[in-house]
Amino acid sequence: MEEGEEQLIDIIADDGVGISEAAVFIFTDGGGGIAELRPRAFAGSQSVTLRRHLSSDNLLLDLPRIGDLQSSEQRLMRENGGSSRNGNMQFSDPLMRPSADDEEFLRQSSSSTTASSSGEYPMAMSGESSPFVMSPWHQSALDNPLDLAGANPRNGLITSLVREEGHIYSLAAVGDVLYTGSDSKNIRVWKNQKDFAGFKSSSGLVKSIVVAADRIFTGHQDGKIRVWRVSPKNPTVHKRIGNLPRLKDVLRSSLKPSNYIEVRRHRSALWIRHSDAISCLSLDEKQGLLYSGSWDKTFKVWRIADSRCLESVIAHDDAVNSVVAAFGGLVFTGSADGTVKVWRRELLAKTTKHSPVRTLLKQECAVTALAVSPAAPLVYCGSSDGFVNFWEGEAQLAHGGVLGGHKMAVLCLVAAGSLLLSGSADKNICVWRRDGGVHCCLSVLSGHTGPVKCLAIVADGEEEEVGGGGAARSWIAYSGSLDKSVKVWRVSEQPPDALLRAPMNVPADP
């Protein structure tokens, strides 16, 4: 990495707790073999020194103390004539004061205090306008006395799956089978919530997993997509059947100079290969397509039938953190550059063509997660400022509002039925229920001792009776955390009786 070059890095703090890859650092020459990097949010005001592990690609983080960050912000306020560039950052709200255990994630939640929709608006992170105080479930505690953490007895922990192999970065659930990926490079298979099998890649922590029929696709830190198949004779055996792109495609493409593109200064690579970590995978099973997003700022389109790369799109100015194949031939991408973009897919004779339609969101803080509701044309976007924006309507995609239930960065989202689950660096999971255009928080699931990095959900197969003779579905949710555990939860679409009597209304755009 050269001086002045920006690069995304997975970070592991001295206590073993990780920080989301959404962090962006600017490299400067620290000398003495110690790299000094400045987070973009504090560039010019606060340096963060990192030293490299001798045995891994992870970095140990010497974080500034909260007082140091406040002092830096105060200096900026003085330099800017009394107003901070990021709003009031004096942590006057005691509810927003991070604990010692959360200091390593301060940057995730405070890297930007501007929550933006299709039109940007400022949100100061203190006092009555803090994300915590403005969250719908906090407002309900004031207006309708209700302890949401235990308000819905139908929502709760079933069990914990713990195998000391590493921080959990990815999950995929199909029926009663769960796949978990970690920085140990292992993929564990759980069946009926019991350890069933496992298989290991040769390199690269497992950042994303998707399952398509009899194939399992895993995206890795080393920039490779690996393809696995379950043995028909022994379901505990998973055999690797190849990589994406295939070796023969790499060799064939390498013969033509026109197939090389510049990926950074003085370095070129084949367009069919990712030149940086795979951050996300998404399936369009109906069209037989696999989408991969990467820190190299691109997303690529793969045909599952023959494992061919059909298209590579330079989508953003920074890392692609999430890609979702959605309704109506649309594809959504979210990036560390703070934007959410919409792409329209056109199927050609032998390939695909994705054209930009519009930019849904443009903000300073990183977009960390996207989810699409399978039950309605709804798109959700989680950001490092702790907010979830959403848009509705297949034709217009109008901005529907902002959900603010977390004190720190939203790291993952999953939608099912009328529910949305959001996992955060604050170690909690918010369970949101949609009723028309209104969302309310049914429960806050707590229990993890580290940031919640990934979520998956499957139908429970049970329905509960509700008032008026209707029925509410029940779901099994899985959450993976940097505390090295996976927790299994039961969540229901039925709100608690108190919420049925006094429903919460979430304000739309300020």
What does this entry look like structurally?
With 510 residues, this protein is mostly beta strands. Among the domains are: 6-85, no CATH class; 112-152 and 368-510, no CATH class. Helix content is 9%, strand content 46%. It is built from 6 helices and 37 strands. Strands 1-4-5-6-7 form a 5-stranded antiparallel beta sheet, with no helix packed on it. The protein has a 4-stranded antiparallel beta sheet with strand order 8-37-36-35, with no helix packed on it. Residues 1-147 and 500-510 have low confidence and may be disordered. Residues 109-118 have a biased composition (Low complexity). WD repeats lie at residues 271-312, 313-343, 360-392, 403-432. Keywords: Repeat, WD repeat.
Using brief descriptors, characterize the structure shown:
mainly beta, about 500 residues, WD repeat, 6 helices, disordered C terminus, five-stranded antiparallel beta sheet, WD40_rpt, four-stranded antiparallel beta sheet
Largest sheet: 5 strands, antiparallel
Strand order of the largest sheet: 1-4-5-6-7
Please state the average pLDDT score.
Answer: 75
The number of distinct helices, counting runs of at least 4 residues, comes to 6
State the low-pLDDT regions, or none. Answer: 1-147, 500-510
Structural class: mainly beta
Total strand count, please?
37
CA-based gyration radius: 22 Å
Kindly estimate the percentage of residues that lie in beta strands according to DSSP.
Answer: over 45%
Helix content: under 10%
Distance between the termini: 42 Å
Shape: globular
